[in-house]
Each structure stands twice: as C-alpha cells, then as structure tokens.
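Data card: per-record layout.
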Amino acid sequence: MRLKLRHLEVFNALFEAGSVSRAAERLNVSQPAVSVALKNLEEDLGFTLFHRDRGYFAPTNEAVQLQEEVEQGIAALERVEKRAQTIRTGDTGTVGIATNGAMSYNFLPRIIADFQRDYPGTRVEMRVHSSRRVASWVGSHQIDIGLIDTPVPAAGLSARLFQMECVCIMRKTDPLAALDVVTPDSLRNRPVIAVTGDHMVDRQLGEVMSRAQVPLNHVASSYFYAIARNLVAAGDYVSLVDPVNGKADIADGVIWRPFEPRILHGLAIITSTGQPLGIAASRLKDRISEGILKHSMADASDDSSQTGASERGKQGEVHDDTPP
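The structure for this 324-residue chain is written out next.
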C-alpha cells in the first residue's frame, strides 16, 4: 500500500473541518474531489474513517488513532519541500573558499557580505594560505573554491584565469601624486615596498627598472599587497600592487597612479575537476568572477583544465606560491 499525500491532506482537512464543503474550501478543490479522495483512502486503509450524518463527518476511533501520525507525516513532507526549495535557490549549506593574501583583505569580505545578504542561509568558511596550499585543499575537496596566483601549481583542477595591471600607490601628499603616469624614472631614489623581493611582480619591476637603467631601492617587503598599502600609508614609500588593493577606497590617505610599462598580476579561480560545485558554491563563484572582472584587463581563460591553465598562466609570468 502506498498512500498519496493528497489523500492524507483530505483526511486532515476533514478531521479538522468536519464537513466536505469546508474541507474542499480549505484545500481549494471541489467537493466531489474531496469525496473521491476520502473513498480511495478508506479503500487503501481497509477501514472507515468518518461517520456520515446529515453532511457532518465525525471521525471514527480508527481515524482518531491515525490523525496524529497523518499530521506529523504532512508536516514532515512540508519540511522536505521547504528544504528542497532552499537547496534549489542556493540559500542553504556551507561553501568553503580559500585564497592567498591578495584577495583576502579588500575583496572577498565585501563579496561574501553581499552574497550572504542575498542568501542568508548559506554559511561561508574562508581560509587564507599560500597558493600551493590552497590548490592542495581544492584538489582534495577540502575547499570548494580557491583564489591563487598563476600558474596553477597542481593537477586535477579547473581554472579561470585573469590578468590585472598593477598600479603604483603613494600617499596623497607624495610628489608622484602630481603625475598622470608613474614610470621607472619616477622611482629613482625612492624607497619601494616589495611583495617578497622575489615575487613575480617584484621581478617584473626589477626588469623594467634595469632596462631603464634606474636603480631599484627595495627597502622592505610586505608579503601581502594590503600590508604594502599600510606601509605606504604610514611612511614615505611607494609600492606596485594589484588594482584590487591599490584602488580600494578605504580612506587611508593612499592614492594610485597607472604604471608604465605595465606590470601584471595573474589570478586564477580554481575548482576541483572531480567534484562539481553545488548550487550555492556555483553562485558564489559567479559573484567572485564578476567582481574580479571589474579589475581585470580581460578574461585569460574560461574554466580550462589544469594543464591548459598552467600553460597560459606561465604567459602571465606571475609567481604561484606567494600570498600577496
């Protein structure tokens, strides 16, 4: 015997309303539909559920014994429907995201906050570590989404690549603020904050300064772009950072100017090729992609395999294992 939800709903409505007309009104169906459903349910169960008396339906002892279970069963099904609805809309569950330092300060917090305003039932867990560790977490399914430097350093990953033009940051009172574009010669005798000293952005800057025959005066390294910006805000420094952190409007007295020749920061959004994202994670990934595109030159690739992603990432010449 397999009971139908509609038959149970009819039983419950009749039990509470006491008449076919009121039960039909409650369920928004016709009275004959209620009568047919009740007849079919009684046939399925093998006993009478109601005494009929001049239009009034009084529950039998059997119906009284059954009613609590029916009510609980309907409530359980309603909970299943509600849960399915929240899953379908992405407003449930937990999304794990990990990033190196570049996107952890002035980008992801705002993206996550906006996302949770739209999907308040979704919990987001964020971790910050090196690009290699983030790639390892994504590849082993510990994290749904990763943001790392290119090239992608591990197999089994799908990557969407982005290229960003770095900007030169300085305090508003710095003489460089009067320039429209900062060039290598503009940095002559200026104290410069490096990322690590060996990060690809540092190496690119070293190369263009060497070609311009201008000594590069690296006086400190910061590891994170956001920390480089804090150092610039606190002292007489300049730094080359990604546009997300360089152009962030955080009222710290730091401004930015374009730098020529251009220096690139390569970024990848990675997911596991062996485990498709759930609805909530897919929607958060889309939000992240839209946010990064606002700061990018162009989309370098669109969800390519790890092999293709790594090859194209090498063209961007950005180090893969430092969390700037």
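Known properties of this structure: The chain has three domains: 5-89, 94-164+265-316, 167-262. The domain at 167-262 is CATH 3.40.190.10 (D-Maltodextrin-Binding Protein; domain 2).

See the next section for split statistics.
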